């Protein structure tokens, strides 16, 4: 969810994923890596384990609920696939895992439902989005899915698409009527994924709730005494809402405090962000918790700084989307303790289901999307990416009438 997602890694270019994999590989192969020891080994002398789960303490009711998660089955109501549709999925940058995962999932879902589908790539440059939108319109597309591209960026082309009857659905994208863009904006998206939020702007409320859940995990894991270094990238609206939900929830905890707020941009991923993180850790020896906004920030700055500080056993690090590179660091005990995973591949399938409902002139069906807390002793697969227990693909295919 955090961008990514979210989170789309706006300008760190094509090297993000490769650097991430290289970093994880280096940590995992290090002879001094804690991964070589038993996960129940006590932290170094004088250090306090940051989480109830890692220390083997009794789980709180909050943690138990977060471990169960909020993921539910998508609607099983029949909504047969509309035939013969052609769609375009516009990715904010296929070289970033935060975009490629939901985009590739949307492509797989489109093929499963029987549609013709193409992917256009912004190549991590939002300035390319308007041209790609117009290219999609001229290609004869019946529908367009926008990945992490907000309405104001493509307002003109969205108006053109609406005039031609072309449907537009967003993935982690915010419409022109969102308060983040000021008052008076009119919505231009054809519809939105149904997150099950009864009132207000669903994606806003869903995203804030996700950030609040991250805070709840941190509060519970630190026994209500979190001293937080909060990192965020102000370039993304989705992170604005995630961060707002997180900070509002932390503020409700009497014994918790945000000791530092560190802002950065995508251009700083790597050594610059790592130095910022190292400085914050040095300036705040009282810190026992760190909040990362998205996977690339975790693996290309925050986790290395925590690991090199020698305080891995003292600091609870809440990661980003929980993509496999973060899970690899978690498994290796290298500066990530937990991630609140809102499955991005599921979101890609939900976007196709939403578009199918709109083609059928129906309201989007409930997606079942939520999140689940993963840490070293709960919900963490032995290897590879996180896989939800709910077979959402089979449910969608049955609802569409395309089951094999």
Q: What are the defining features of this structure?
A:
404 residues; alpha/beta; Rossmann fold; 2 domains; four-stranded parallel β-sheet; 13 helices; 10 strands; 12% strand; globular
Order of helices and strands: HHHEHEHEHEHEHEHEHEHEHEH
CATH class of the largest domain: Alpha Beta
- Unreliable stretches: 4-58
Largest sheet descriptor: 4 strands, parallel
N- to C-terminal distance: 30 Å
How many separate domains make up the residues?
2
Can you summarize this structure?
The chain is built from 13 helices and 10 strands. By secondary structure, it is of the alpha/beta class. The two termini are 30 Å apart.
Describe the structure.
The structure is a single chain. The chain is α/β, with parallel strands linked by helices. The chain has 2 domains: 47-71 and 203-343 and 370-395, Response regulator (Rossmann fold, 3-Layer(aba) Sandwich); 86-198, 3-Layer(aba) Sandwich (Rossmann fold), CATH 3.40.50.2300. It is 39% helix and 12% strand. The protein contains 13 helices and 10 strands. The chain has helices spanning 15-29, 52-55, 61-68, 97-113, 129-138, 155-163, 202-221, 237-251, 271-283, 295-309, 324-331, 344-359, 392-400; strands spanning 86-91, 116-121, 143-147, 167-171, 227-232, 257-263, 289-291, 316-318, 338-341, 372-375. The strands form 3 sheets. Strands 2-1-3-4 form a 4-stranded parallel beta sheet, with helices on both faces. Strands 6-5-7-8 form a 4-stranded parallel beta sheet, sandwiched between helices. Strands 9-10 form a two-stranded antiparallel sheet. α9 (271-283) crosses α10. The longest helix is centred in the middle third of the chain and has 20 residues, at 202-221. It is globular. The chain starts with 14 loop residues before the first helix and ends with a helix. Residues 4-58 have low confidence and may be disordered.
